[in-house]
């Protein structure tokens, strides 16, 4: 099953984000992760440049695995994240696994 992780940064934390970004990206791509990263990237402020959060889609057996994965993200451990929402997601449009289902 797919899950969307929607995380918003606390205000005025861009410096923490930038200092932690390499560790965050390495964590997302860890071969030992309990989830499989499908897609993700930073959410941007209205200026279209300033990073203010993250949207990450993973595949996992349970929401509990996704919650544990999210809780151990270096961004969260560094105190960057102000709020997180995790929801099951039905990936239909653009899903490469469904390309032959049309």
Automatic annotation (TrEMBL):
<feature type="domain" description="YCII-related">
    <location>
        <begin position="1"/>
        <end position="90"/>
    </location>
</feature>
<dbReference type="InterPro" id="IPR005545">
    <property type="entry name" value="YCII"/>
</dbReference>
<dbReference type="InterPro" id="IPR051807">
    <property type="entry name" value="Sec-metab_biosynth-assoc"/>
</dbReference>
<dbReference type="InterPro" id="IPR011008">
    <property type="entry name" value="Dimeric_a/b-barrel"/>
</dbReference>
<dbReference type="Pfam" id="PF03795">
    <property type="entry name" value="YCII"/>
</dbReference>
<protein>
    <submittedName>
        <fullName>YCII-related protein</fullName>
    </submittedName>
</protein>
<comment type="similarity">
    <text>Belongs to the YciI family.</text>
</comment>
